[in-house]
Amino acid sequence: RARSFIRAYNEVFPIRSDELMNGLRWFFWSQLVYIEWPLDAHYFDNDTRADKLLPKRLNRLEYFSENFDATLDAFSSSL
Questions:
Q1: What's the CA gap between 26 and 19, in Å, rounded?
Q2: How many other C-beta atoms can be found within 10 angstroms of the C-beta atom of residue 9?
């Protein structure tokens, strides 16, 4: 679905390959950083409300770290 979206977007608003790669890198980086707030809330604020989000965040982090290059390759072929 993501590749279809990128292809359709590119037809209306052309995007260079380097722009797409920079956007994807930023997205991956944001996912790595985004896991921090549930941990901070739990350990530093003694707030366990965000604990239920942690398994999903950890799974996403694991996926992105294991599939970073393959995912970038798949998206770059969409242009």
A1: 11
A2: 14
In which element (H, E) is residue 29 found?
A: helix 17-34
First to last CA, the chain: 14
What torsion do the CA atoms of 58, 61, 62, 64 make, to the nearest 10 degrees?
Answer: 160
Longest distance between any two alpha carbons in the chain, whole Å = 49
pTM of the model: 0.57
Q: Is 73 exposed, middle or buried (0-12, 13-18, 19+ CB in 10 A)?
A: exposed
Residues 6+ apart with CB under 8 A from 53: 38
Tokens of 60: 């996403």
d(CA 64, CA 51): 21
pLDDT digits (tens, 9 = 90+) for 4-22: 888 899 899 998 888 988 8
